[in-house]
Structure formats: structure tokens, C-alpha cells
Amino acid sequence: MSFMKALELVKYGKFEYKDVPVPEIVPNEVLVRVAVCGICGSDVHGMDGSSGRRIPPIIMGHEASGTIFKVGEAVDGSKWKEGDRVTFDSMISCGNCWHCNRGEINLCEDRMVLGVSCGDYRRHGAFAEFITIPERILYALPDNITFEQAAMVEPVSVAVHAVERSPLHLNHTVVVVGAGMIGLLCLQAAKAAGCGTLFIVDLDESRLAAAKEFGADFCLNPTEADVLEAVKAETDGRGADISFEAVGISASTETAIKVLRKGGSCTLVGNIAQSIDLPLQEVVTRELSLIGSCASAGEYPACLDLMASGKIRVDSLISQKRPLEEGQEWFHRLHAGEADLTKVILSP
Question: Are 235 and 261 in contact (CB under 8 A)?
């Protein structure tokens, strides 16, 4: 039996960098040698047990890239070979259920997420030297995409999927509430889709500064500006056509709803809180649309193209690249909300 190094969550709040068996591939899988894997916010919430979806022991990690080390006997050899640079979806869909047959792979009845153990299943992730990946969720990297950039494709796909779910048309006025990782990516995706005026709202001045670099027209701190009045001033008093809520709490959702014009649409991407207060009468009487957006549904090729062309930029969102053995330290620093720490990428 061969062994590899992995970062395993052995109990809530505690990791061990240890030797574990190299996973065996089945015929339709490839074995990927992991180059890098990013720490997702869902991993951080998994570490402390608050999500209930990373029950120890588990090797987490789903934002990754690497090279094919071994190819299963049923894998298309004309498409994939050892040494190919690849990334992969964070979610394994069954490919056969009613939703999968409609292309709604993110809603698959039997889906599994890499690096998740939730009681129904356990699927080890990419905080390790190797990971097995089904051929159907594998994507080749463009030559000008680095492994580090490729590890950002998963969060980029969340933002691109949210924009695809939204009735966004050319020259629409858009408000993004929340300038964290996903909010900043929603901003770039909306701009790439042809929005007109783009607002972003956050309490953190450094995040607003980053949003300005990514093309936001107006960066608003609600403690210093009247967000609704600022949006109305640029829309002849109507409000925005589209908003994206990228936090997931009551206050930010209320802002995302209030800034809309009559008949506008709010896409809900953030999901920190399990339930929120909703201004129901405002939604009903102003005929607003609320759209949920979950993960992504096959947008990886489009995301890789957007990144390769420079329309979506991720380099400045990567705060640190550190060895996998230092993972526990960086998980705890992210959990503590350390300033200016956005994305930490670990390398086996």
C-alpha cells in the first residue's frame, strides 16, 4: 500500500498532518497529484463544527488543481493522459437523476461534495498529495492559467452561476451587497456580462478599495453613506435593476431588496444564516423577484475562459500560499477573521 501526506481534521478545531493511504481509482476516475488547494469559507465553518458538514475525521478541500498522475481504464484516453494540467468541480453529480438530465447538476439528488462528511456520505478532499476525480467533472487548464489561479475557479464559478441565474441585461444598474470573495467575483462577472452602472456595498474600506480596482463605479460604506439614496441618484429615482446579496444575513438582505426598482430582481448567493428576516410586503407590493443561487452547474469552461482572457482577475484575492503542513495555523487565522486575509492556498 502506498501512502501520502494529508491534512486531516481529526476533531473540531484540530488538524493532523499525517500519512494516509493513497486513494485507489475506479475505472472512470483519474488520480490527480494536487498542486494547490484553497481554504474555502465553508471549510473554516466545517473546522469549528458550525456547518455540520465536516464531521471528523475528514480530509477537507475542494478548490484545487494539479496534474493527472494515473488514468482509470474506462477513462477516454484520447482526451486525458498522465501529466495533463487540470482542475475539477467541487461537486460530484450522479449524471443520471432527473435534475442531472436537465443540466441542473448542482441540484443532483445524489450529489457529493469533495471534502465533506455530513452523515449521509464521506468524500475526502484535496488537502492531500493525491485525490481521485471522476472523469466527468475534470477540466483542462488553459496554458496561461497557473495552478494557483485554477484553484480559484470554484469560487469564480459560484459568482458566474449567480449572474447566469439573474435576468441581467446590457446596461442594467447592479448593486452587489458584500465585498468579500464571492461579492468581488460577482462584481467582475456582472461587469463581464455587460452591466452598466455597478455599485458595491461593504463595511470594510479595504474591501471597497479592492472593488474599485475591479471596476466598481460606486463603493459605498453604509455607515458613511445612504446606500438607497446613492442608488436612486444614479437611476432617476427608480433604484437598481439587479442586486446580488453575497453575505447571507438579515441586514444585508434587507439592503439588497431595498435598493431595487419596482419589478427588480435580487439574487441570493450568501448563506451564512439558516434563516433571515424578510421584508415580505416590500417584495410583494413592489413585485420583486428573489432568486436563489447554489454553487455552479457546468460553468467551469466559461470561467476558465473568462480568467484566461483577463475579464475576471483573481491574483490579488490570493493572500497567502503556504505549505500544507502549516494548514492548521492558517485555518485558525482565517477563523479569527485576520485583517487583509482573503484566500489562503495550501500546497502539498
Answer: yes
Q: What is the pLDDT of residues 131-156, one digit of tens each?
A: 999 999 999 999 999 999 999 999 99
- Whether residue 297 lies inside any domain: the answer is no
Say which CATH number the domain at 111 has: 3.90.180.10
This prediction's pTM: 0.95
**Domain of 118, in residue numbers:** 3-152+314-347
Q: Tell me if 241 is assigned to some domain.
A: yes
Hey, what's the cell of 294?
447554489
DSSP alpha helix (H) spans, 66-165: 98-101, 147-150, 153-165
Are both 57 and 166 inside the same structural domain?
no
Phi and psi angles of residue 4, each rounded to the nearest 5 degrees, phi first: -140, 165
Query: Is 328 found in the same domain as 280?
Result: no
Per residue in 195-238, pLDDT tens? 999 999 999 999 999 999 999 999 999 999 999 999 999 999 99
One domain for residues 189 and 222: yes
Clarify whether residues 88 and 202 are in a common domain.
no
Query: Which amino acid, 15?
Result: F
Please confirm whether the linkage preceding 142 is cis (ω < 30° from 0). Answer: no
Which residues, in sequence order, are CB contacts of 242 under 8 Å at separation 6+?
166, 167, 168, 172, 173, 174, 175, 190, 195, 260, 264, 265, 266, 267
Coil vs helix vs strand at 342: coil
In the block, which residue shows the cell 424578510? 278
